Every structure is written in structure tokens, then in C-alpha cells.
């Protein structure tokens, strides 16, 4: 199962040069270490295609070009080493334009994702939904199957499909229905899921159902929040669904070829598990601030470990003892544990340095 996220802002050439370029590359590589196997970029015009093309030569992360309306942008993106192109054929234009895109994708062996969205259904299907003669989930499937038929007419088979809605029920029903009738790989996710808490809650409800039914080959949790939090959320949802279904989620064949070590590394492994207390009036250690500060770095580790971050001695030493690395408040000090053994007592101001040092020894 390949996790993906989407770059949140428009990139320009200046973002790829000098110190800014180093920071851009470092952030993308960090996303890869956290478990992101595919990174999608909106490509609204030809200049953005040139920027994406240059970036593709700077990072190891497979990049996906997301294109609407103009087939020439898709053609230009495929001059570069993009891992996938996402289009909505319904808004790419006439049949001959779609044919040109597919011909080049076939030549370059680039998969295409047919991205159907409830907010941009074809006009006839939208009208049928609006007048109540067609269920929205069925409309999503019909829209996808229409495009699949068009692709088949051009003998193009290197395809993924996504059918996204902001409704949990529509997302589940559309993906269920589609997978009953087709064996095309599916990218799954709830679109416009909302801010962090709402988005994670809603995505978890939809995705765990689909994942437990074996539906989905790539996944994205769309949040009005950072890419890093989307990756953490997706990883946790995959782990939770894996626990529920009693199985691990393994990258689909099509994606495995493209995701490289980063994508495969997550297969069958949980990675880091963070146990942190919610904090209460007894706390003498800022668990919220410490966890927020360390979260991305911990999720980027290629280690199956449990880390406990606790506020006080009520539950702190107990949890910290059971973790591979634990830190807990204790009066005006903090206690550091590694694999059940208390290592040292430190001042809160020394917590980051001591934690980093012990983490490096795991
Ligand atoms: S570990 Fe301590 S600070 Fe954290 S919730 Fe429990 S009692 Fe409160």
C-alpha cells in the first residue's frame, strides 16, 4: 500500500535554487523517510511543468503530475521522469487530445490515474444526481467506467482510478461498487476531509472500511494541514486497519515497482509508535510541545520502536519502562528510560539533547 500526499503550494524555480532548493529537497526526502511513496504536484500551466521537471531530477521521491484542462501540460510533464500523471479525462478536452496523452504515456511507460471527483462530475451525471434519479456513488463509478472504456479503446491499460467525495458513505459505496465490477487498481481517500481532527476522524471512518475489505492500492489522507501530518495520519490509519483486519498492507505490484525502498519499507512494518499522555494538572513535563516537536523526526526513523512521552510519575515511569525509549516528568526533573531501564534524571531544559542522544543509540 503506497501512501501519498500533495505539495500544498505552487513551486517556482526560485524554490529549487540555492538554500531554498536545499530546503525543498530536504523536506521531500524527509517526507520519503516518513513513509510518503508518491508526492503529487498540481501543474496548472506549462511553467509549472518545467519546474516539476527540474525537481524530478533533484529528488529520489517519485513525483506525480496533477493536470486539468490542458493536454499540452500533460505532454510536457511526460518529457521528464514523472512517476505518474493524474488527469480527469472529462476536462482534458476532445478525444484526439486524450489519445495524444495516452500515446505518450504508453511510449514512456507512465501510469495514468483517472481522478474522478464528486465536485466535478460530468454534466449529465451531475444533473441525474441533482434530480435524484442517480445515486452519487453510482455516478462516481459510471464516470470512472466511462473513462476506462475510452482508455480501453486506445488499448491503454497502465491505469489507476480514484473516485473521491467528501461524503464518507459515497466514498465507501463508490469504491466498493467499482471494485466489484473492475480489477483496475484504486487510489482511495476522502476528498476535502477537513481540518486536522475532523479530517483524520472522517478519513479513518471511510478508509478503514475499505482497507479491511481489501480495497485500495494507494492512499491519501487529505487534510487542511501539513503534508507531514497527512503522512502520519495515513500511516496510523493503515496500522489501525491492519490491526482490525489482522493483516499487513503491502504495496500493490504496480506501485511497488515505482515506490522504491521508501514505499516497500513500510510493508509489514509499523515503524515508530508514540505513546503520549494527554497531560493534566499533575504534569511537570510539556508532553504536547515535546511530542509535536519530535513527531516528524520519529516518523522518519526506519525503526520499529515505541516511544513514550509522559507528564508525571503517576503513569509515566510505568509507560516509559515498557517503551524502547521513554521520557516522563518527575517533579521539577524528567526521567529518561531505555528498554525498561532508567538511565538518568535530567532538567527539562536538557530533554531534547538527552532524548536525541539516547534515540541515536537505539
Ligand atoms: S501521566 Fe500524569 S500528567 Fe499525564 S495524564 Fe497521567 S496523571 Fe496526568
In short:
The chain has 362 residues and is an alpha/beta fold. The chain has helices at 18-34, 46-56, 71-77, 95-108, 123-130, 136-153, 168-181, 196-212, 227-245, 253-265, 287-299, 316-322, 351-360, and strands at 2-6, 36-42, 63-67, 84-87, 112-117, 159-164, 187-188, 218-219, 273-276, 306-310, 325-330, 333-338, 341-347. It has two domains: 2-265, TIM Barrel (Alpha-Beta Barrel); 273-360, Sulfite Reductase Hemoprotein, domain 1 (2-Layer Sandwich).
Characterization of this structure:
- The chain is of the alpha/beta class.
- It folds into 2 domains: 2-265, Dihydropteroate synthase-like (TIM Barrel), CATH 3.20.20.20; 273-360, 2-Layer Sandwich (Sulfite Reductase Hemoprotein, domain 1), CATH 3.30.413.10.
- The protein contains 13 helices and 13 strands.
- It has an 8-stranded parallel beta sheet. The chain has a 5-stranded mixed beta sheet with strand order 9-10-11-12-13, sandwiched between helices.
- Strand 3, helix 3 (71-77) and strand 4 form a beta-alpha-beta unit.
- Helix 5 (123-130) runs antiparallel to helix 6 and helix 8 (196-212) packs parallel to helix 9.
- It is globular and about 70 Å long.
- The structure holds iron/sulfur cluster.
Amino acid at each position: 500500500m503506497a501512501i501519498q500526499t500533495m505539495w500544498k503550494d505552487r513551486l517556482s524555480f526560485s524554490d529549487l535554487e540555492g538554500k531554498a532548493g536545499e530546503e525543498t529537497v530536504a523536506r521531500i526526502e524527509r517526507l520519503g523517510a516518513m513513509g510518503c511513496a508518491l508526492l503529487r504536484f498540481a501543474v496548472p500551466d506549462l511553467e509549472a511543468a518545467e519546474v516539476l521537471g527540474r525537481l524530478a531530477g533533484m529528488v529520489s521521491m517519485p513525483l506525480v503530475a496533477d493536470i486539468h484542462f490542458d493536454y499540452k501540460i500533460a505532454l510536457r510533464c511526460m518529457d521528464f521522469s514523472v512517476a505518474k500523471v493524474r488527469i480527469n479525462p472529462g476536462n482534458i478536452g476532445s478525444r484526439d487530445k486524450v489519445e495524444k496523452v495516452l500515446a505518450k504515456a504508453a511510449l514512456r511507460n507512465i501510469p495514468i490515474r483517472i481522478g474522478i471527483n464528486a465536485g466535478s462530475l460530468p454534466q449529465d451525471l451531475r444533473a441525474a444526481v441533482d434530480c435524484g434519479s442517480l445515486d452519487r456513488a453510482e455516478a462516481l463509478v459510471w464516470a470512472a467506467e466511462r473513462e476506462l472504456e475510452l482508455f480501453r479503446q486506445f488499448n491503454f491499460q497502465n491505469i489507476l482510478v480514484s473516485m473521491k467525495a467528501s461524503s464518507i458513505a459515497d466514498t465507501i459505496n463508490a469504491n466498493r461498487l467499482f471494485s466489484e465490477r473492475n480489477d483496475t487498481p484504486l487510489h482511495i481517500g476522502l476528498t476535502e476531509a477537513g481540518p486536522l481532527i475532523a479530517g483524520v476522524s472522517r478519513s479513518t471512518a471511510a478508509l478503514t472500511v475499505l482497507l479491511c475489505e481489501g480495497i485500495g492500492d494507494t492512499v491519501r489522507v487529505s487534510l487542511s494541514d501539513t503534508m507531514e501530518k497527512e503522512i502520519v495520519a495515513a500511516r496510523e490509519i493503515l496500522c489501525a486497519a491492519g490491526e482490525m483486519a489482522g493483516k499487513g498492507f503491502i504495496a500493490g505490484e504496480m506501485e511497488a515497482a515505482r515506490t522504491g525502498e521508501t514505499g516497500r519499507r513500510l510493508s509489514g512494518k509499523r515503524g515508530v509508535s508514540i505513546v503520549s499522555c494527554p497531560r493534566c494538572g499533575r504534569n511537570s513535563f510539556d508532553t504536547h510541545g515535546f511530542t509535536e516537536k519530535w513527531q516528524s523526526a520519529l516518523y522518519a526513523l526506519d525503526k520499529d520502536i515505541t516511544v513514550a512521552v509522559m507528564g508525571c510519575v503517576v503513569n509515566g515511569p510505568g509507560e516509559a519502562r515498557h517503551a524502547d525509549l521513554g521520557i516522563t516528568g518527575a517533579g521539577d526533573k524528567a526521567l529518561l528510560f531505555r528498554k525498561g531501564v532508567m538511565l538518568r534524571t535530567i532538567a527539562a531544559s536538557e530533554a531534547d539533547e538527552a532524548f536525541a542522544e539516547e534515540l541515536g543509540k537505539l
